[in-house]
Amino acid sequence: MTREKENTGFICQNCGREVLPLTDGSYRNHCPFCLYSLHVDIIPGDRACSCGGLMKPIAIDYNPNKGFQIIHHCQKCGFERRNKISEDIRQPDDINAITSLMRKQNL
Fold it and tell me: Does this model's pTM top 0.70?
């Protein structure tokens, strides 16, 4: 699958808002408004996972190489994955949603 195919917009299955593709060469893997994701990848971007469960944002972590990341937990199968926070100029991840998540974990 090419990056162009991976980098498509979608409608969030959690909050129903329109999510635009990224403009920074990466691809969008979670909603910038509610921060939810879908469990659709085995390897990031491959869309090869049949689970399809809604992945709830449960925490924020910091990786010195990748920056701040959202930890997502699949509500269907329990799988967890980390995704970089997006600072895309058209539709960055909602800072209020990020800080709310950080407050819940006392960071």
Answer: yes
